[in-house]
Amino acid sequence: MLNPVADTVPTGDIVLNTARLIDGEVEVTWKGKLASSRFAPFWLRDHCHAKHSLHADTLQRQVDTFSIPIDIMPAQIIIADGSRNLHIVWKHDGVRSEFPSAFLWSVAQTEGREVAPRRLLWDRGSMGEQFPSMSHEQIMADDAGLLRWLSLVEEHGFALATGTPPSIEATQALAKRVGYVRETIFGGMWDFTANLAFKDTAYTPVAIGPHTDGTYSIDSPGFQMFHCLKFDGTGGESTLVDGFRVADQIRKSDPIAFEVLSTVKVPAQYLGDGVHLKAEHPIIALDHNGDYLQIAYNNYDRAPFRLPTPRMNAFYKALKLFNQLVNDPAYEITMRLAPGTALLFDNWRTMHGRRAYQGFRWLCGAYLNKEDFDSKLRVLRAGQQKT
Ligand SMILES: [Fe+2]
Q1: Hey, what CATH class is 6-110 in?
Q2: Please, which residues have CB less than 5 A from ligand 1, an ion?
Q3: Residue-by-residue DSSP string for 209-268
Q4: How far apart are CA 375 and CA 145, in angstroms?
Q5: What pLDDT was estimated at residue 384?
Q6: Distance from the CA of 302 to the center of ligand 1, in angstroms?
Q7: Coil, helix or strand for 114?
């Protein structure tokens, strides 16, 4: 499924066509665009881009929002600077406000909200055997390489980095290229073998079904990096499932189950190792547009909670369907993580699991915050627009 990308429209060549006061609002049109948009005068004064109202360096608001008259009205509306700016002179104090055409266009498209990125939902059939991948060398070489890799992760929910030196240090350097390594109860950069260092099934050789990490965390880790530094044994293949693809399937085939999964907040907890973490998430979280925001699913870590029996039964029914689909081989891809191939995946979308194994397996990795990944992508994309 392809989502529209409203926030990546190049804004450099957006110019104004008309601007006029109508029914107490300022209606704006842009050259070559069919859409018009109306802006409230109070909102416009609050978002003035002139130096007296928006700090030129920090881009922080300087206008005193609370001194703006609630019935503020324009005295003059002027298209200026080659149609690249809208000027408004205010009736009550004669102050002149400025608004870049591209700014108004951008707000008109998204209402200032984040728009779900371009995503290619996949299952086993559509993904095939060719996984999104780039060389470590390209990713580390320059911003263009990093942007391409992170865009792959954004589109598919995961991507591989081949030719990564099989060491904790090199894996950490790759993670830091993306964002801060997150400190959690497992440390920052972690590495483990099946030694049960923590009270978690990850630290055993048994099979682990598809799940997301940190359902017990209010801000679940946004991304996770895995790098197998050594493997000498059998089994242990990693499994990935596109949680948004599964959610999409349920949305189409069972709207009642989808309603339950997207509204019932499920508590989860981590109890042990001197901590008691607890948080609640719906299994399928949606954003303000109804687009997929986050999958939070780990049946091992679900904490006790109760609903009225009919609703509780509906929850168990929906949970069973979700679990059935995420364990259906039709939605799952498998890969053997080998020394040299690092995996970065979206822990808010892509569920991961592991087959049982015998032998020695040494894995390292890191958690990264979603906000840092998103920030890096915005900065890289803004840099690309300038060049
Ligand atoms: Fe995990």
Answers
A1: alpha beta
A2: 213
A3: EEE-S-TTSTT--SEEEEEEEEEEEEE--EEEEEHHHHHHHHHHH-HHHHHHHHHPEEEE
A4: 16
A5: 85
A6: 14
A7: coil
Among candidates 92, 128, 105, 89, which has minimal Cα distance to 12? 105
CA of 319 relative to ligand 1 center, distance in Å: 19
Q: Which of 260, 251, 232 is nearest to 338 (CA)?
A: 232
Ligand 1 mean position to 326 CA, how many Å?
Answer: 14
CA of 203 to the centre of ligand 1 (A): 10
So where are the chain's domains? 6-110, 124-383
Per-residue model confidence (pLDDT) at position 1: 30
Overall fold of domain 124-383: Double-stranded beta-helix (3.60.130)
DSSP characters over 278-338 = EEEEESEEE-TTS-EEEE---GGGBPP----HHHHHHHHHHHHHHHHHHT-GGGEEEE---
Q: Give pTM, 2 decimals.
A: 0.89
pLDDT at position 273 is 85
Distance 214 CA to ligand 1 centre (A): 8
CA of 353 to the centre of ligand 1 (A): 7
Query: What spacing in Å lies between the alpha carbon of 298 and ligand 1's midpoint?
Result: 9
For tokens 């009205």, name the residue.
Answer: 73
Q: Which residues of the chain have pLDDT under 50?
A: 1-10
